[in-house]
């Protein structure tokens, strides 16, 4: 596996049913060193068609999770 993409199913990653922190911890425990990225961002508030707010939210969430695992 060279990359993992997390999808929130139309919801922000922190609100999705997927336990992202546990999944990333399991990947780290298994020795995974590939890329981790967010999938298609959800539409947040008054976002435009590029969904920059949704993308920023999901990227920030993934970054915080990875940093918290040290």
Short description:
The protein has 70 residues and is an alpha+beta fold. It has helices spanning 20-29, 52-68, and strands at 3-6, 35-38.
What does this structure look like?
39% of the residues lie in helices and 11% in strands. It starts with a strand and ends with a helix. Helix 1 links the parallel strand 1 and strand 2 (35-38). It has two helices and two strands. The protein has a two-stranded parallel sheet with strand order 1-2. It has 70 residues and is an alpha+beta fold. The protein has helices at 20-29, 52-68; strands at residues 3-6, 35-38.
Keywords:
alpha+beta; 70 residues; 2 helices; 11% strand; two-stranded parallel sheet
Strand residue content: 5-15%
Helix content: 25-40%
Strand order of the largest sheet: 1-2
Cα end-to-end separation = 21 Å
Radius of gyration: 12 Å
Structural class: alpha+beta
Number of helices: 2
What is the residue-mean pLDDT, rounded to a whole number?
89
Which stretches are poorly predicted, pLDDT < 50 over at least 5 residues? Answer: none
- List how many beta strands DSSP finds: 2
Oligomer: single chain
Mass-distribution shape: elongated
SSE string: EHEH
Biggest beta sheet summary: 2 strands, parallel
Which helices and strands occur, and which strands form pairs?
Elements: E1 3-6, H1 20-29, E2 35-38, H2 52-68
């Amino acid at each position: 596996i060279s990359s993992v993409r997390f999808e929130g199913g139309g919801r922000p990653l922190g609100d999705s049913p997927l336990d992202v922190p546990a999944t990333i911890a399991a990947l780290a425990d298994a020795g995974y060193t590939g890329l981790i990225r967010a999938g298609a961002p959800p539409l947040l508030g008054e976002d435009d068609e590029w969904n920059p707010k949704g993308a920023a939210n999901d990227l920030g969430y993934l970054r915080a999770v990875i940093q918290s695992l040290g």
